[in-house]
Design goal:
Chain lengths: 309, 306
């Protein structure tokens, strides 16, 4: 049975009259990758700070790894790795010394930690730059070091706040690979990002924030195959007996609407009707020229919510 | 907290800041080297190793003034960027995402700074005393040693007070330059202006001085106002410790003329003097504690944004 790592109910953070986070519910299971989306200022970072006990919620209940982050910060922080939005390291220390400090703060055994630090530095591709001062690192290198820093304590949950920032395209692909790898090892990943395509690739579930509220939440598979009303869309092109095919399609059980323009149809149904639709067309003497499910990308969904109001 | 303490110690004794600390120690000992010790040992109060710190023979300023001037500056230098530089570097949110309490970060930094200050002050003192022993060829008496140890304790408390002050500033002010300037400003105000203000206020409280009693009352008013200043506490305490004969006489000499005239100029026992400065040390520790308390209250519940 998979364990619940993040459980939040009615989470509120108010700054004076401004509601940064307004009644948010969150739920995250072991090994799950959750994409936390939303425009700048929608309350994503504030939510993350509340999950880590770096700021106190105004109202609501939150539990991370079974502990209250405000009251038992250490029990939470022992198990959670956090990569802040703009990760910082001590510029006058080398990469490896920065990680050593983190290991000491986590009370890790020196021998075990030095072994782990070396493996992690190799993994993030900083094996050669390990002795270099972090002040000389590029933005992307710091981001990679940040990832090693997060994984050092062998976390159960990893919170990444915009981790693709400053990474080049290959770096982003590499990062996605690391995230997938973490998820197969059972680490839950809470990923805040603006890179919608990437999020779609790795996340199991996404939530979209707007003005402190979660306006949409669901599994990536459901969101991309279903439209707003929960229907499945498919498009097909028919040759031969087009009119006969049209009436057959309209008569299919579970069809919500059929739109025709010339030889092509757009059909919305309660379920995925591709099989039935193809059979109906062929039965009534039509030629099936093309049939496909109309999936929306995460970007389409996102933009539907944030068209310039 | 141990990890934080050792990291900060490594910072203080690594590269740039070490040069600053070493420079102060060397400068202090060099300062002592210019003292005309051969004259001092003959003409002094009989407590040669105490006189070394208070004398101006051959010097523009006594070693004591040197310490009371540079001490606060190193205290401030070690603390003014303690928290806000971590904030601007972006390391604060990363460190606080590790399993450490926030006060451990603050305490670790304070203790490391405290250790560094103690090492600087004590090694400077040992350097000066050693130099004096080498030049004159006598060793400090037990009495002198006790007083010097008391002096070191008062000095360390005084320097730690400025460390606590600048660390408090580093929590409240996000900008390191601002916190350095404010710390130095507080130092100047409490070290110089309060003393001037104390005189003025005492004149308001006791407007007319006709009898000796009035003069004494005015003086006491001035004394208690000026005692809110850490530097006044420090100079009073060091006076008592380093001048066994007249140091305990807090009232101005003019008032004491008749009292001191018949007085046999015998030194006070070191234990007595240590008892006299105990309140000063307690007052300084209380000031440190209240500044740390204010810092905790502010820092513990603060939002740490990346």
């Amino acid at each position: 049975m998979s364990e619940t790592l993040i459980e939040a109910e009615g989470l509120v953070k108010a700054y004076g009259h401004f509601m940064a986070v307004d009644g948010l519910d969150l739920h995250l299971n072991e090994g799950e990758v959750f994409g936390f989306l939303g425009p700048n200022g929608s309350g994503k970072s504030t939510t993350i700070l509340m999950l880590l006990g770096l700021t106190e919620p105004t109202a609501g209940r939150v539990e991370v790894c079974g502990h209250n982050p405000t009251r038992e910060p250490l029990s939470v922080k022992r198990q959670v790795g956090y990569l802040p939005e703009s990760v910082g390291f001590y510029a006058d220390l080398s990469g490896i010394d920065n990680l050593r400090y983190t290991a000491e703060l986590n009370n890790m055994h020196r021998e075990r930690s030095s072994e782990r630090i070396n493996t992690l530095l190799e993994m993030v591709g900083l094996g050669e730059a390990r002795a270099q001062q972090v002040g000389q690192y590029s933005r992307g290198m710091k981001q990679r070091l940040g990832l090693a820093d997060v994984l050092l304590k062998e976390p159960r949950l990893v919170i990444l706040d915009d981790p693709t920032l400053g990474l080049d395209p290959t770096g982003i692909q590499w990062l996605l690979g690391v995230i997938e790898e973490m998820s197969t090892q059972g680490i839950a990943v809470f990923l805040s990002s603006h890179q919608l395509q990437e999020v779609q690739q790795v996340c199991h579930r996404v939530g979209i924030m707007s003005h402190g509220k979660m306006v949409l939440e669901g599994s990536v598979a459901d969101l991309t195959t279903q439209d707003d009303a929960g229907g499945y869309r498919l498009s097909l092109a028919v040759g031969g007996a087009v009119d006969a095919a049209e009436s057959a399609l309209r008569a299919l059980p579970g069809v919500r609407s059929v739109e025709r323009s010339g030889r092509s149809f757009e059909i919305e149904g309660d379920t995925d009707l591709r099989g039935q639709a193809a059979a109906a067309v062929l039965e009534h003497g039509g030629d099936l020229l093309e049939i496909r499910a109309v999936n929306s990308t995460l970007e389409d969904i996102y933009l539907r919510y944030f068209r310039v109001d | 907290m141990r990890a934080i303490y050792w990291k900060e110690m490594a910072d203080h004794f690594g590269r740039k800041r070490f040069l600053l600390l070493l420079g102060i120690v060397v400068l202090g000992v060099l300062w002592g080297a210019f003292i005309d010790m051969e004259t001092l040992v003959v003409s002094g109060s009989g407590f040669f190793f105490l006189d070394v710190f208070t004398t101006t023979l051959g010097l523009p300023l006594s070693l004591l003034s040197f310490i009371s001037f540079f001490g606060p500056i190193i205290g401030i230098a070690l603390g003014f960027d303690a928290i806000n530089s971590e904030r601007t570097q972006g390391t604060l949110s990363r460190v606080l995402a590790q399993p450490v309490y926030r006060d451990a970060l603050f305490n670790g930094k304070f203790l490391a700074g405290f250790t560094a200050l103690a090492i600087v002050l004590v090694s400077m003192g040992i350097g000066v005393v050693g130099l004096a022993m080498f030049r004159i060829g006598i060793a400090p008496s037990g009495e002198e040693m006790l007083r010097l140890i008391g002096f070191a304790a008062v000095g360390i408390a005084y320097l730690a007070l400025w460390l606590a002050m600048s660390m408090t500033a580093s929590i409240f002010l996000r900008n390191t330059v601002a916190s350095a300037l404010v710390s130095i400003g507080v130092w100047i105000v409490t070290s110089f202006f309060i003393l001037i203000a104390a005189t003025a206020l005492a004149q308001q409280i006791v407007p007319e001085v006709e009898t000796n009693e009035d003069a004494l009352r005015r003086f006491n008013a001035q004394l208690w106002i000026s005692r809110t200043s850490p530097s006044a506490l420090f100079s009073e305490a060091t006076n008592i410790l380093l001048d066994p004969i007249e140091g305990r006489l807090l009232t101005p000499l003019a008032l004491n003329m008749e009292r001191t005239q018949g007085m046999v100029k015998t030194p006070v026992a070191a234990g007595q003097s240590l008892q006299l400065v105990w309140p000063h040390i307690v007052a300084m520790v209380a000031m440190i504690a209240s500044m740390l308390a204010v810092s905790y209250i502010r820092f513990m519940r603060e939002e740490i944004r990346a």
